[in-house]
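Ticket #4471: structure output looks truncated?

Reporter: J.K.
Steps to reproduce: submitted the chain below (498 residues) through the standard prediction queue, then opened the result file.
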Amino acid sequence: EGAFNYTVMALSDSSELTCSTAFSSCTISSLQCGTEYSISVLASNDAGSSKSSSAVTLKTVACAPGRVTIQEDPPGHLSVAWSNVDLGDYYVVFVKSDDGLEVHCNTSLTQCNFLSECGFTYFISVFAYNKAGQSPLGDIFNYTTAPCCPSDINPVLVSSDRVQIVWSPVRGAELYETKAVDGYNMVECNDTAPACTLSALECDTKYNITVYSFSEVRGSNMSCTPQFITTAPCSPEIKNVSRDAFSMINVHWRSTNDDATYTVTAQGEKGLYQCSSMGESCTMWGLPCGSVFSVTAVAETQAGRSLPSYSVPLETVPCCPTGLTVTQITQSVINVSWTIGRVAQTHVAVLKSHTGQSKCHTHQNHCLLGCIICGINYTVTLKAISATGLTADCSYQSYFSGACCPLGVKLYRLGPNGIRIYWQASRGSANYSTDLYGSKGIFTCTPNAGLSFCDVTEIPCGDVYTVMVSPVTETGLKLTFCPKKIYSVIYRGKRNEE
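Returned output as attached by the reporter:
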């Protein structure tokens, strides 16, 4: 009682704070956090000051924790640590992601762990608590996790030297780094778009392809999973195109692919022909004669299809002539004619027998063959040759040369108006026909088979006759190339020969 003024003193190890009032309370500001104060009150009036009251102890709220560190190790686990503060009984850490979701943890330790997701920015604040309450707000920290890794990498184009891949955009990525490694070499591309075309790759090669996401704050996410992609096979190289005696087309190539199937295509005006093989050669047949084709080869594996090889021209042999005709001109000369086949430029005709052969080479559709021996069998063959020298061997039926002309032809008068024609049969024929040509008509006589004479009756006497004895083929063809002889009949029983 009797006090006119009160003075409140707050003493700590480092400071002294006071407030004065005429009432029964006053406010002391600027207290320091994390500090223990001794509070006492002193009353005063005109007579002086009283003794100070018994002191009471006051603990302020703890200071905000400092030296806050944030780590993400391993990815997906966020660790927040801080230094211990004076008068802090426990701590609360608040973590709020940029999508608005907030989590917190209470601990008496100096570390808290949180689950985190890729591509998020987290805002982190740490508070200390004691009986006085919550510490003041300290620094708010933000931590951005590594951007997410693309998970749906899809190759949309795989060729022998390129791979184009696409993926869905991922959270937190500002740039994508794509790397393709084959063990020795690396090809990479960087782009902000969720797509990449890797070029200048080796054909038929297995690449380890990884797409890394990148952010300026956190850098690249190096935990992205690789994907293995094999490029399409290399183009084969056609080494040789050959033909065998049966008009088979054999194609040989060289390639370094593993487990590839090769398809060879011959394409031309007459159509398209193919053969396939897993080796280094295949055979085509049935290609039409006299045609030009372009031959290419491609390789195919599970990874894709190669580019076609460089084309190789293929010319098939000329077509064999048709309509072969053999005509005997004389006893030792025949004419062979034919209809020219497709792309044939010259022909070689050959008549062959056990006694030898006769041959001619011509650009026409016929030729004369001499030195033919009468009355024996020949084999007729014809070769068609193209402008580039390709040859088609064409075989035909045998040919029987005409029978030899008879020898010793003689004419005898038989009675008043009859003539007997006599001859000596030659090799190769048993059938003959005789013809008498006179001023009063032509008289023909055909003897029975095997006979070497023929009687012509009812002819006028006193005339001059031209007589020819001709061999007759099995088909009934009369060969009229034998020499003719002239006879004049002067009187009965006599003859005169010119």
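Triage note (M.O.): checked the attachment and the full token line is present. Residues 491-498 have pLDDT under 50 and may be disordered.
Status: closed, working as intended.
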